Amino acid sequence: MTTEENSADPIDCSDPAIVAKYESYLRMLAQTQMRRKLQAKYGASDIVQQTMLQAVQALDGFRGENEAQFRKWLRQILSHHLCHLDRDMHRDKRDVRREQSMEDKLAKSSMRLEGLLQGDVARPSQNVMQGEAVLALCQAIDRLPNEQAEAVRMHYLDEMKVSEVAEAMDKTTAAVAGLLHRGVKTLRRMVEN
């Protein structure tokens, strides 16, 4: 079991409404991991809704004990949905390695997300935020202006260089640096309140 899984608060899964608390978290992860072609065809919100529906239906099957294990379980469901959509789009034969890779990517994105506000994006596992703080951060990113949110996701969660973000967004590096500066400053203010 990872440090993250051992360090979280216990979770009560007796109420299926618990899954709704994680909508922003799942959407953030879906947005960072969906391929551009997949994003053009499916919205992250649609995939998150499918993930949440499956989670509610399978809630009795959750065998974890705490909030971090619950997030991991939700990431696995999301990973399976993303892989199935990707496979359907490419009509390739099922590749279990690709599904495992997606789970790893989602876990890494989650760790980077958890480390974002600690100011230590390079080593987030040392500054893991717990439960409600992760959800609050996802909700705060959702409330950022679209360009700031996109820049923050690309740079911090997708680990793109500022120059790569600038190219993807068709902006100058200075403009992207400004978006990142304002975005992170706003996020810190929103999460601290």
UniProtKB/TrEMBL annotation:
Gene this protein is translated from: sigH
GO biological process terms, semicolon-separated: DNA-templated transcription initiation
InterPro entries: RNA_pol_sigma-70-like (IPR039425), RNA_pol_sigma-70_dom (IPR014284), RNA_pol_sigma-70_Plancto (IPR014326), RNA_pol_sigma70_r2 (IPR007627), RNA_pol_sigma70_r4_t2 (IPR013249), RNA_pol_sigma_r2 (IPR013325), RNA_pol_sigma_r3/r4-like (IPR013324), WH-like_DNA-bd_sf (IPR036388)
Signal peptide per UniProt: none
Family according to the record: Belongs to the sigma-70 factor family. ECF subfamily.
Domain RNA polymerase sigma-70 region as annotated: residue spans: 22-80
Source species, domain of life: Bacteria
Name listed for the protein in its UniProt record: ECF RNA polymerase sigma factor SigH
Keyword Transmembrane listed: no
Gene3D superfamilies: 1.10.1740.10, Winged helix-like DNA-binding domain superfamily/Winged helix DNA-binding domain
Keywords: Sigma factor, Transcription, Transcription regulation
Species: Stieleria bergensis
GO molecular function terms listed in the Swiss-Prot or TrEMBL record: DNA binding; sigma factor activity
Database matches in Pfam families: Sigma70_r2 (PF04542), Sigma70_r4_2 (PF08281)
RNA polymerase sigma factor 70 region 4 type domain ranges (all copies): 139-187
